[in-house]
Design brief:
elongated; 4 helices; alpha/beta
Length: 199
């Protein structure tokens, strides 16, 4: 499949029901009872359209969970995206208690192969008594599925000290419609944040 460059950043479980799955999470030991109420969302991308779409989608999903969340792109111009002074100033001015950042770690091509195991081969001299068994125990070539995966890293930082308090690694399978993948990502990662008592 052709990869749609989501988060040149990301585009941003299971293939059948969601394009995104969270593989693992980490939480700072002293962050167990910490709940964030106002978050600044950052999507690391050089593509303005992708960054904007991601930040808007993720922020909107966080707001449905009772968090005041804003995209960073209206507040953090492209020229200042890599400036720690700029992100500190924006977070402070907006009274955000946290900054959540998502970036693409790598993209992988994967193969899954399944090979049926033939059962015992019965035999009969009579066609009609044997006919159903002819459809079992025969050879089938392996089925090979080729797909691409984007591995994403999401980190939540506390604004006051700038320390990481929570992180997650997620995967996007065969991204095609990057806007749908953003929605799936926002739902899955938002659920993980709630589960880990970050929201």
């Amino acid at each position: 499949m052709r990869w749609h460059p989501f988060l040149s950043l990301i585009v941003l479980g299971l293939v059948a029901c969601s394009s995104v799955t969270v593989k693992n999470t980490w939480r700072a030991p002293d962050a167990q009872e910490r709940h964030f109420h106002r978050l600044l969302v950052v999507g690391v991308s050089t593509r303005i359209d992708v960054r904007n779409a991601f930040e808007d989608g993720f922020a909107a999903a966080l707001r449905t969970r009772g968090v005041q969340a804003d995209a960073s792109y209206p507040l953090l111009p492209e020229m200042d995206t890599q400036s720690p002074e700029a992100i500190r100033a924006v977070a402070g001015k907006g009274n955000y208690d946290g900054v959540i950042v998502t970036r693409l770690v790598r993209r992988e091509a994967r193969l899954d192969a399944t090979a049926p195991v033939p059962g015992p081969m019965p035999f009969s001299m009579n066609l009609y008594g044997y006919y159903p068994q002819l459809w079992t125990g025969y050879y089938e070539p392996p089925t090979v599925l080729s797909y691409e995966v984007a591995v994403l890293e999401t980190t939540l930082y506390g604004h006051a000290g700038g320390d990481a308090v929570w992180a997650a690694t997620s995967e996007v399978f065969d991204p095609g419609d990057y806007r749908k993948n953003i929605d799936d990502f926002a739902k899955v990662v938002g659920k993980a944040l709630v589960r880990d008592r970050m929201l």
